[in-house]
Write a structure and sequence with these properties.
The complex is a heterodimer of chains A (about 180) and B (about 525). Helix content of chain A is about 75%, strand content about 0%. Chain A has about 180 residues and is an all-alpha fold. With about 525 residues, chain B is α+β, with helices and mostly antiparallel strands. Chain B folds into two domains: about 75-285, no CATH class; about 295-370 and about 410-530, Beta Barrel (Porin), CATH 2.40.160. The chains are: A mainly alpha (about 180), B alpha+beta (about 525). At the A-B interface, helix 2, helix 3, helix 5, helix 7 and helix 8 of A face helix 1, helix 2 and strand 8 of B.
């Protein structure tokens, strides 16, 4: 499916069939983003469907021929950050706690090959919300540390700390996973 | 180490890209309901658009069509009334006497009615000649019927009267100055002096009444079995002649008397439409102009305005960064205004509805935060032996965490991302001057608005850092000044206009210890206006 001018026109008109086709087409991208940030199905659904409603509302701003998935990824990222900021005390989540510190461990490269994407999602869900958000933005969405500082209005050191913590935690989970796989 | 970091990042990135999901039914149900809500909103917006578009169009159409319909209906009712009366009389009349009397009476009533009607018709500039012609034709047809009935009754006395009339006319034309009755003289004066035409019409009615009296004299003539008394005939003829002279310059048929009696209204109509002295019409208009030195109008309008806050803060604006977190607001306004034009001066007063306010985006992330880069332990060291002469003090600091930052943030993280709106009912008072250019007018105006708050009219503001948001109520009354430039295109009794304007509050809308807030607005109104009679 390619998002052409005809499709845009039909979606604007409110053609339900075409709109739902577009929903199916966009779902994988939306859901993979939502699943990385939200643990519960209901929360994921809220994010995915809210983003899709925004896509429908603003479909006329999309220029056919340009990267559709990049466009919707930007929308979903904005939605996720806004959703995080809706939490009135979200900055407290970024507070650095020594108790959260995890011992660094080393993972051999071949370990990654034995793991699938589902277990990767499960591991991400183990991370604390703030750490998960920062790591997702940095490692998966490709944000730079400076951009995360601006988006979340937290200090550079805080961003670095959360990234470091996420890596440590994920490594330890991978090692645990490896052990369980061996067993 | 770096390689390992890249490994883990890439692993999760690739996992994310490889993932695939099926659309669950619950997701589809939810998105369907959300899309339903969205389409309903769109429809509602569309409905409002059409409503606001159709209302002014409807008003214009109503005004354009309504007055014409009323006039046509009036004409039709007059014609039908005349037809009914004429038919009724045609059916019931046995003798010509009765017929003449009846015709006379009908013509009188028609004359009175139509003189009244004529006055209103004179005012009607749109009265078409075609309408008048059709009216004339209908009345002429009625008159012909009466003539035919008269012929059927074979009134020999009438023929003789006609002969007498012809004789009299010929002698009259020779000795016009001697025989012309006072009414004719008056008519002549009236012709030369159009200002007296209205009075002349009144005498016209009198003349018709005289003709009615002559009807009884005509009875006497018939009863005397054609033993005409020249004096009586003369009286009759002169009166009929008066009537014909007064009502028609072109009375030429043999049945001149009956025509003059039955066609009074017809000829009046013709006079109005075709033969009336243009100076008369102008005079009528001129008199009206003199009478209506003050032109009254009513205007209906609606429009959009863009509002910006004129904010005065009692302290450093960086301490209260409201102005950096607010943006302009678009709002609608509508109203009705009465205007009076005295010479070229324009005075107006009305009632309008409008909103003021601003969009606010007070986010905690925009509020100031306190940040401590590192926690430092500070100690004081003195020499072991307290000796006043050699006393030394040294201060040293030991950073406990040199690679981490301890950051503290404000705890009152409250968001407010909405518009503060205040609704007002205003009484606009305006003064202007009209520059007329053909059908267009340019009217610069100045004025004041007396605005009264509707409802609670509260707004949310981030006045003080770390203390959350505050609710402020607007003033119940505000005074504003306004500058306008109306451009209008006039039609017959109505006009359309556009009216760009600037409006600024003189008294503050919000007044607190921290802020004094007024609003400036640029806007444009468009609407339709009607002349009042």
């Amino acid at each position: 499916m390619e998002v052409t001018e005809d499709i845009i026109r039909e979606v604007e008109k409110g053609n339900r069939k075409i709109t739902l086709d577009l929903y199916h087409y966009s779902f994988n991208v939306l859901m993979s983003s939502a699943a990385r940030y939200k643990n519960h199905k209901e929360d994921q659904m809220e994010i995915v469907n809210n983003v899709f409603v925004k896509i429908v509302k603003n479909i006329k701003t999309y220029r056919p021929g340009t990267a559709y998935f990049s466009w919707i990824k930007t929308i979903v990222k904005r939605e996720l950050i806004d959703d995080f900021r809706k939490n009135k005390k979200y900055k407290e989540l970024f507070k650095i706690r020594d108790s959260d510190s995890v011992q660094e461990s080393v993972v051999e490269p071949e370990v990654y090959e034995s793991m699938d994407s589902e277990s990767a999602f499960q591991m991400l869900n183990v991370l604390p919300p703030a750490t998960k958000l920062v790591f997702n933005l940095y490692a998966i969405e490709g944000y730079k540390s400076k951009e995360i500082v601006e988006e979340l209005n937290i200090s550079y050191e805080t961003v670095k700390w959360h990234i470091k913590q996420a890596r440590k935690k994920l490594k330890s989970l991978i090692i645990e996973n490896k052990i369980s796989l061996k067993q | 180490m770096k390689e390992e970091k890249d490994h883990i990042d890439d692993f999760f990135k690739e996992s994310s890209e490889q993932s695939s999901f099926e659309v669950p039914d619950s997701f589809l149900d939810d998105i369907n309901s959300k899309l339903d809500v969205l389409s309903q909103k769109k429809k509602r917006r569309g409905g409002f658009f059409w409503l606001w578009t159709l209302i002014p169009i409807g008003l214009i159409m109503m005004y354009v069509l309504w007055p014409e319909d009323i006039e046509i209906n009036k004409t039709k009712s007059i014609v039908s009334l005349e037809n009914q009366e004429t038919n009724a009389e045609g059916a019931s009349m046995d003798s010509m006497d009765v017929q003449k009397f009846e015709s006379n009476l009908i013509s009188d009533s028609l004359t009175e009615e139509n003189i009244t009607q004529e006055k209103s018709l004179n005012y009607s500039e749109n009265r078409s000649a075609e309408e008048l012609k059709s009216l004339k034709n209908m009345l002429q047809a009625d008159a012909k019927k009466v003539d035919e009935l008269a012929d059927e009754n074979n009134p020999l006395w009438l023929k003789e009267e006609i002969k007498q009339q012809e004789v009299f006319n010929s002698s009259n034309s020779n000795n016009e100055s001697e025989i012309v009755p006072p009414e004719v003289e008056e008519m002549a004066i009236a012709d030369s002096n159009p200002e007296k035409n209205i009075e002349t019409r009144n005498s016209n009615i009198n003349a018709t009444e005289n003709a009615e009296v002559e009807g009884s004299e005509m009875n006497a003539v018939k009863d005397n079995n054609k033993n005409e008394n020249p004096k009586i005939i003369y009286t009759l003829d002169t009166n009929l002649l008066e009537s014909s002279i007064i009502h028609s310059d072109t009375s030429e048929s043999a049945s001149v008397q009956i025509d003059s009696l039955t066609d009074t209204e017809d000829q009046d109509s013709i006079l109005n439409a075709e033969e009336v002295d243009p100076s008369e019409t102008m005079l009528a208009g001129g008199n009206r102009e003199k009478d209506d030195k003050i032109n009254h109008e009513i205007q209906l309008y609606g429009g959009m305005l863009n509002l910006s806050s004129n904010l005065i803060l009692s302290n450093d604006s960086s301490t209260f960064p409201m102005n950096t977190m607010e943006s302009n607001l678009w709002s609608a306004s509508f109203g009705v205004v009465y205007r009076a034009k005295i010479k070229q001066f324009d005075l107006g007063a009305g009632l309008s509805w409008m909103k003021t306010g601003e969009k606010a985006n007070y986010g905690t992330n925009n509020l100031e935060m306190a940040e401590v880069d590192s926690l430092i332990f500070i100690g004081w060291q003195t020499d072991s032996v307290f000796n006043q002469n050699t006393e030394t003090w040294s201060i040293d600091s030991i950073p406990l965490y040199d690679s981490t930052t301890v950051t503290t943030y404000t705890n009152d993280s409250i968001f407010y991302n909405a518009a503060n709106k205040y609704t007002w009912i205003s009484i606009p008072l305006r003064f202007g001057y009209r520059f007329d250019i053909n059908k267009f007018s340019i009217i610069p105006r100045v004025g004041i608005d007396l605005s009264f708050a509707m409802g609670s009219n509260t707004g949310t503001y981030a006045e003080i850092i770390n203390e959350g948001l505050t609710q402020n109520s607007s003033s119940r009354f505000i005074l504003s000044y306004a500058l306008q430039l109306e451009v209008r295109r006039s039609f017959d009794r109505w006009h359309v206009f556009v009216n760009p304007y600037f409006r600024s509050n003189v008294t503050p809308v919000i007044s607190s210890a921290i802020q004094t807030r007024r609003y400036n607005s640029w806007g444009i109104n468009a609407g339709i206006g009607f002349k009042l009679k």
